[in-house]
Design a protein that fits this description.
With about 375 residues, the protein is α+β, with helices and mostly antiparallel strands. The chain has helices at about 30-45, 70-80, 85-90, 100-105, 185-195, 265, 285-300, 305-315, 350-355, and strands at about 5-10, 55, 60-65, 110-125, 135-140, 145, 160, 165-180, 210-220, 225-230, 235-240, 245-250, 255-260, 275-280, 330-335, 340-345. Helix 2 crosses helix 3. It comes from Thermodesulfovibrio aggregans.
Length: about 375
C-alpha cells in the first residue's frame, strides 16, 4: 500500500479545545483531531446517502462494523494484496461501512494516520482572547452577566455557558500518512470541507474548533523532502472504488451543504448541512462568540417542547426519562476574512434521524 505524507499547516479561527480525561486542554490531542475528521466524514456520507440508518451502531454512536479477519485473509490468499480490490471486498462482500474502511475498525488499519503535531510561531495555551470564564443570559429579558455574577449552572432564571479555558490559539502543523488510493478522492475533499465548514476538537456548541488550512505539503516514498501542493482543494468526493457515485460539497444535483435565510430552517431534520450567514460581524472575535451564544440562547427558549429542545440545542447533565445525546446540533459558525469575523450558525439536525431510527442498535 503506497502512502503519502501530507503536512498540513493550520491556523485557529476560533479556540481549539482538545480536552483530556480531566477536561483540561494542555496539548493538541491527535485522537481528538482524527475523531473530528471521522465524525464529519460520517455526517457527510450519511447526508449524501452513502450510509443508511441500519448501518448505524447506536451503542458506539457511529457507523462501525468489525472486519472478519478470516474472510479477509482468504480473499487476499486467492486475490492478492491490491488495495483497490481489498477495499471493494470489504465494501461489497463484508458490508463494512465506509467510515470503518477509511478510519479503521477491529482487524483493519486506518487509511488515514496522524503521525505528528508541531506547534508553530506565536502559539498559546491559555486565554489569549481574554474570554470570560462563563456568561449567562436571563431567560426573561436576555440580560447578560459574566463570570462570578453568573450562577454556576443553568437554572429557571439564567442560561449559563462556560467558555472553556485554557485552549489553544495560534498555528500548528500536522503530518498525516494517507493511502494514495484515497488521497484525491476522499482525504482532500474531506480536508476541503473541514477548512471551509468543519469543526475540530470539542466545545463546538460555543463556536470553538474552527481552523483554517494555511498550506499543504506532500512527500511520497520516492522523495526526501516536502513539496507544496497548491491544488489540494477538491470540491467533490469520488467513491468509484466502492461502486458509488461522485457528489459535490455545494451546488450540483445533490449537494451536501446549503445556505438558508432564517433560523427556523436550521431546525428541520433535512439530511444536509445548513448554514445561516450574517448574524454577527465584528473585528473582535470575543464579541462575535458571545453575540452568537446570546442569539442561540434566545432561539433555544422559543422551543417549548423540552425533548425537542434538548435534541436540537443539547443539554447538560442527566434528566430523568431522557436518553438523549448531549451535543448541540446547531453550532455557532464563524469565518475570518482579513481580520473581520463573520458569525452565523451551522445545523446538522439531520443527524437526529439516526437517533429516531429503530434500527440504530444494530451493527449493520
Amino acid at each position: 500500500m503506497n502512502e503519502m505524507e501530507v503536512k498540513a499547516t493550520f491556523k485557529t479561527i476560533t479556540p481549539l479545545w482538545t480536552g483530556d480525561t480531566w477536561q483540561e486542554c494542555k496539548e493538541i490531542r491527535p485522537s481528538s483531531l482524527i475523531g473530528s475528521l471521522r465524525f464529519w466524514f460520517e455526517t457527510l456520507m450519511y447526508f449524501g446517502g452513502v450510509l443508511k440508518e441500519e448501518q448505524f451502531n447506536k451503542a458506539l454512536g457511529r457507523f462501525e462494523k468489525e472486519v472478519d479477519r478470516e474472510k479477509l485473509k482468504d480473499f487476499m490468499k486467492h486475490n492478492g494484496n491490491n488495495l483497490s480490490d481489498i477495499l471493494t471486498h470489504l465494501d461489497t462482500n463484508q458490508k463494512i461501512p465506509l467510515p470503518s474502511i477509511i478510519f479503521g475498525t477491529t482487524n483493519w488499519k486506518s487509511l488515514i494516520v496522524l503521525e505528528e503535531i508541531k506547534h508553530l510561531e506565536d502559539y498559546c495555551f491559555g486565554n489569549r482572547l481574554n474570554l470570560h470564564s462563563r456568561i449567562c443570559f436571563s431567560k426573561s429579558d436576555l440580560q447578560i452577566k459574566v463570570d462570578n455574577d453568573c450562577p454556576k449552572k443553568s437554572n429557571k432564571n439564567f442560561s449559563v455557558f462556560y467558555l472553556s479555558q485554557p485552549y489553544f490559539f495560534g498555528k500548528f502543523e500536522v503530518i498525516f500518512k494517507v493511502s494514495e488510493e484515497i488521497l484525491d478522492s476522499i482525504f482532500y475533499p474531506l480536508l476541503t470541507f473541514m477548512d471551509k465548514y468543519g469543526y475540530w476538537g470539542g466545545k463546538w456548541s460555543i463556536g470553538y474548533g474552527r481552523l483554517r488550512v494555511e498550506k499543504i505539503e506532500i512527500k511520497n516514498e520516492n522523495t526526501t523532502g516536502y513539496e507544496e501542493n497548491k491544488e489540494w482543494q477538491k470540491k467533490e468526493f469520488n467513491l468509484a472504488h466502492f461502486g458509488l457515485f461522485t457528489f459535490k460539497l455545494e451546488n450540483g444535483e445533490n449537494p451536501l451543504i446549503k445556505r438558508v435565510i432564517n433560523f427556523n430552517e436550521l431546525l428541520n431534520q433535512e439530511k444536509i448541512v445548513k448554514i445561516l450567514d450574517s448574524c454577527a460581524r465584528n473585528n473582535d472575535l470575543k464579541e462575535v462568540i458571545e453575540e452568537l451564544i446570546k442569539q442561540k440562547s434566545q432561539e433555544r427558549k422559543n422551543i417549548t417542547d423540552q425533548k425537542d429542545r434538548h435534541y436540537k440545542f443539547g443539554k447538560t447533565g442527566r434528566i430523568e426519562g431522557e436518553d438523549l445525546p448531549q451535543g448541540s446540533k446547531i453550532l455557532p459558525f464563524i469565518e475570518e476574512d482579513n481580520g473581520q469575523y463573520k458569525g452565523g450558525f451551522l445545523s446538522i439536525t439531520g443527524l437526529l434521524n439516526l437517533e429516531n431510527s429503530s434500527q440504530g442498535d444494530k451493527n449493520g
